[in-house]
Amino acid sequence: MTSENSNSRRDFLKKSAFGVAALTLGGMGMSAKSYRRIPGANDRLNVAIIGLGRRLGAFYDPIASPKSNVNLLYLCDVMESQMANAAKNFAGKIDYKPKLEADFFKVIADKNLDAIINATPDHWHAPGTWLANEAGLHVYVEKPCSHNPYEGEMLLKSQKKFGKIIQMGNQQRSSVQSNTIIKQIHEGIIGEAYLAKALYVNNRGRVVNPTKAPIPTGLNWDLWQGPAPRKGYENDTWDYNWHWYGWDYGTAESGNNGTHEFDIARWALQVEYPEKVMVDGEKNHFVDDGWTMYDTMDATFKFPGNKTIKWDGKSRNGYNTYGKGGRGTIIYGTKGTVWVDRGGYVLYDLAGKEIESSKSNGGKEEAGTQLGGGGDTSTSHVQNFFNAIRGKEKQNSTIDDGVKSTLLCHLTNIAYRTGEVLICNPTNGHITNSDKAMKLWKREYEKGWAPNF
């Protein structure tokens, strides 16, 4: 880290719950910091958005809506142009100016802040969340909630230790249609649900081959790397292609998009941790470009109770295999089948005849395979997070569910990287048949960035 960022982090840690004893207020058993962060009489929350890239559009409506009753205190990003762009875009949606701040640690040290939206790259998701929890903040963290399985476990530990709301951006959990049909599945409308097929299809093109390059103007490359081991900048890394350039920052397509469909599949089947994971993954397209991991994957997860989830991921072949769009989940039962996606659901009987369907009506339809976006489901999910902080709503998806669904992404990646069939402990997902695979359960951290709680 640069000396400035090192000092910022060091100052933060000195002031954190690890460095000072909590002050109590009149026998309330509450720290002064916690007391100051209780929402006021009007329940208004002060929030910050950390990471102002392609997911920014998903937060315009939930921040600007009077129903949300929030004050956007900060826009934070390590790239100056991202902050300027975000400020410009919000200018037409809110009648005040949020503060622009490039340093994450300065933002979370603000005692007036209640919560952050963590929309940073994958390698920042879990560390940014537990550091914010430590500072007394609630966190809405984009998917995947972790970069590796160990970080998922640490998120659960953080939530328990600091008692803050953590909600992953698995926004389909806040879809009226998805909730309706999943409830019906649980009640037996298709009999016993035994198989869920999660799918994602896109036609991503060639990506440039990364080569050493000057750090882009306005980018704090050191802080962008955050918890990852330090390396020199390579062109086109910071702006989305970090997803495909090795494993220091991204989680491949399984983590990038599979998280959503894995979550629906696991929810529908009412399963938690798999017993066995089998993967066939390859890079089949533009084989000489900078993409370093699979772009095509078939994965199978076997769960207790003879239940199965299959993953069909095609990042760079846009053929519409299932005839229903670029993403979705098919749930098979002993008496019928359901197709469910971000737009609604279709229910079929055992003969394959459509017997019921429901689609989103009006409003802003949730983004599918296009970059960025948002929609009514994202808005509802963020507002659910706000109201869970206030104690007015139950979370539509706890971080416990987020961690379990994200683990499936990590297991596909570990199976692909090792070339092994994984045997897992069905009580916690730990890999029991391969020391080589378990070495990938955790990552190497830049000095000073590993969690210390």
Structure overview:
This protein is of the alpha/beta class. It has two domains: 3-172, NAD(P)-binding Rossmann-like Domain (Rossmann fold), CATH 3.40.50; 173-207 and 243-370 and 399-441, Dihydrodipicolinate Reductase, domain 2 (2-Layer Sandwich). It is 31% helix and 19% strand. The protein has 13 helices and 15 strands. The protein has helices spanning 3-15, 32-36, 60-64, 80-91, 104-108, 122-134, 149-162, 176-186, 221-225, 252-269, 376-390, 399-418, 435-438; strands spanning 45-50, 70-76, 99-101, 115-118, 138-141, 166-168, 193-201, 276-282, 296-303, 307-314, 327-333, 336-341, 344-349, 354-359, 422-423. The strands form two sheets. A nine-stranded mixed beta sheet has the order 14-13-12-11-7-10-9-8-15, covered by helices on one side.
Describe the structure in brief.
The protein is α/β, with parallel strands linked by helices and 453 residues long.
Record the SSE blueprint:
Layout: H1 3-15, H2 32-36, E1 45-50, H3 60-64, E2 70-76, H4 80-91, E3 99-101, H5 104-108, E4 115-118, H6 122-134, E5 138-141, H7 149-162, E6 166-168, H8 176-186, E7 193-201, H9 221-225, H10 252-269, E8 276-282, E9 296-303, E10 307-314, E11 327-333, E12 336-341, E13 344-349, E14 354-359, H11 376-390, H12 399-418, E15 422-423, H13 435-438
Parallel strand pairs: 1-2, 1-4, 2-3, 4-5, 5-6, 7-10
Antiparallel strand pairs: 7-11, 8-9, 8-15, 9-10, 11-12, 12-13, 13-14
What's the number of domains? 2
Reported CATH architecture of the largest domain = 2-Layer Sandwich
Q: Which runs of at least 5 residues are low in confidence (pLDDT < 50)? A: 1-7, 12-41
Whole-angstrom Rg:
22 Å
Largest sheet features: 9 strands, mixed
Looking at the structure, the CATH topology of the largest domain is Dihydrodipicolinate Reductase, domain 2
Top CATH class of the largest domain: Alpha Beta
N-C termini distance: 21 Å
The secondary structure category is alpha/beta
SSE series: HHEHEHEHEHEHEHEHHEEEEEEEHHEH
> What is the overall silhouette?
globular
pLDDT averaged residue by residue: 90
- Biggest sheet strand order reads 14-13-12-11-7-10-9-8-15
Number of helices: 13
Q: Give the name of the CATH superfamily of the largest domain.
A: Dihydrodipicolinate Reductase, domain 2
The helix content, as a percent range, equals 25-40%
